Known about the structure:
Elements: E1 4-7, H1 11-23, E2 27-33, H2 40-44, E3 47-52, H3 63-73, E4 77-79, H4 89-97, E5 101-102, H5 107-114, H6 116-125, E6 133-134, H7 141-151, E7 155-163, E8 166-171, H8 177-192, E9 197-201, E10 206-215, E11 221-233, E12 236-242, H9 249-265, E13 270-279, E14 289-295, H10 302-309, H11 313-321, E15 338-345, E16 347-348, E17 354-355, E18 358-359, E19 362-364, E20 371-375, E21 382-383, E22 390-398, H12 401-413, E23 416-418, H13 424-432, H14 434-437, H15 445-453, H16 461-468, E24 488-494, E25 497-503, E26 515-519, E27 522-530, E28 534-535, E29 543-545, E30 550-555, E31 562-563, E32 568-574, E33 577-582, E34 587-592, E35 599-600, E36 605-611
Helix pairs in contact: 4-5, 7-8, 12-13, 13-15
Amino acid sequence: MISSLLIANRGEIACRITRTARRMGIRVIAVYSDADAGALHVREADEAVHIGPSPARESYLVAEKILGAAKASGAQAIHPGYGFLSENADFAQAVIDAGLIWVGPKPHSIRAMGLKDAAKQRMTDAGVAVTPGYMGQNQEPAFLAQRAGEIGFPVLIKAVAGGGGKGMRLVKRTGDFADALASCQREAAASFGNSHVLIEKYILRPRHIEVQVFGDSHGNIVHLFERDCSLQRRHQKVIEEAPAPGMDEATRKTICAAAVQAARAVDYVGAGTIEFIADASQGLRADRIWFMEMNTRLQVEHPVTEQITGVDLVEWQLRVASGEPLPRSQNQLEIKGAAMEARLYAEDPAKGFLPSIGTLQLLQFGAGEGSRIDTGVFQSAEVSPFYDPMIAKIIAHGRDREQARVRLHQILAGSAAWPVKTNASFLVNALEHPSFVAGDVDTGLIGRDGEAMAVPPSPSPAALSRAAMKLAAPTHQPGFRVNAAPVRTAHFLCDGVPVEVGLEHRGEGRPAASAFVIERGQAWLLTPWRKEGTAGGSAATGAILAPMPGRVIVVEVAAGDKVKKGQKLLTLEAMKMEHTLIAPFDGVVAELNTAAGAQVQVEALLARIDEAPG
């Protein structure tokens, strides 16, 4: 068995690999860039090696630095995770040539499946059905246009070296083909250094079905059943599940056998995924499912397979790389229940899914039976602009699909981050979509209905009231009774927007400076606000706290100044609004901790007012 493992990756996948390796008694070595010096995967490792500046092209994508880190740390093996160098055959070979164990498929298997056109030809030769199309070497625009016409529109133009949705264009009519081809070739050349494309028939009701395969060095290859990854946005997977809804046993047997046949055709060892495209216009049928491509690595969505099979795929990777046979045979594998996974990203659906970066001043995950959270961040961590903005993978397992869906919905609804935006509310909306509930999903669902899913929720009165009670100072209210209608209202700022909230009973204990409203995967910061247009600290303490992160633009007092109740102290610019902070009572500026131009965080103590003597 491997005794020491360097993980050539970062984020949640590095943490996930570490978890299994540590359980197996394997020493773990992490690598990190400047931006990741304090990252979770670094904290959890036994040892960490710095490999360069923040940009991935200067750190995680530099093979020489990874190999140098392995040598310096005495690592016995390297696990590439997914992304970065995981499907780089030259890197895999370099690891082997350095006398290290490569936790992945053989380099020649990676090369065989690395180019889509060559992979499809190999599958055709192996008797695996492929999508109708053209995969030849003739890249003349006129010839490609002719072949597209013969295949029949609509067609997909795909970069042969593509992946992740890049280098792909849908063409619906003849007149659009030339421009789409040129655009696709430019993007392919820029992204992959290879402008060659293939053309395939576009399926009108496509479903993305993939099969987890696993091989060892003793000639054994098994499948661990299928996953459905049809809920996609711009070719990026959003929610994945296993098993695929509507998959009957006969069709499952056919598609899984084809996946094993495909893996055997390239002498596959380790974890891999065979991706198929299905025409679901008449339901899932064995004669309407075709090979699309192979991913020669562990997939982001591998947890759903683990949840329904009870298998730790990373443990299998490490055992197979150590020369052991597969831990289970095909007849020892079975499906138990159903699982779903949602990818929680730091992005703002209301702003076109733009990445959202910054400090996670709040990060919480919902809980519930059957839940699993794979994450690479923690509260107070920074979401960096240098890497993929994934915060976590939220996974739920249940006895059947509906229970898994309900459980995932519950977990996501209780998850929140602030001030970093996430797609949690978008995911909640997707799980509620009638087609998804019914299991009637194709890859175009979000393209059709995603605009409505992206509309951000507003906090309900009940959620506002619950949070507001944490801010309401204790007050005596004659006639108060439990479960009565609201007996008074108070004014607050909810992420900078004034709101009036009904309070149903007295606040208890010491009032807080701010509170979070959390509902449907969204978080809003609630802070006290004076209706005349001021916001500020606690009258009970004289502490003037920042109601939210922002920039101080005006300071109107100095330490030692006498102030009157209601007098302006300073102005904070936040959430595109100006917030004036005032003196809560007559007194003296005992403490001043900021200046004009300063950037401040939520609840930072900006000033303190002491009551005037006498």
